[in-house]
Amino acid sequence: MVIVSIQVPGVSARTLERFAARTRRAVKLKGTVSIRVTSSREMRQLNRRFRRKDKATDVLSFPAGNHFSELSAGDLAISAQIAAANARRMGHSISKEIKVLILHGMLHLAGYDHETDNGEMACKEQRLRKSLGLPTALIERSLASKKSDKKAGVRP
User: Does residue 151 fall inside a structural domain?
Assistant: First the structure.
């Protein structure tokens, strides 16, 4: 189920639902995934409440507990404003950007964690991104940005 709680030009819940179903199968997630496309303000509130980070973020993943794993894989929340800004910066549509975020979030629901898995999630995301016809994925962007900063002598 996809809920678009903030108007996003060129994005329909129905199109995102079809993409999400395809992505869920590609990631091999069991159970349903609920997706909410919302404001950066709500994302900041969710990020502060669940991750103790007082800032908006592009996508949050909430895996279902073991009790619900057969019925629900979990929930995703996506910031429409951050997706729009990323889409402009990357030169593609906001619809494609939201799909990139859905893929990233579903990989997290499947148990991948790019901060601790030595590149396993990045490889899977890159392979799936290509098969799903998506532009550069989040982890690839992050790695490219770090390489660029390193060349420029910028410290994290």
Answer: no
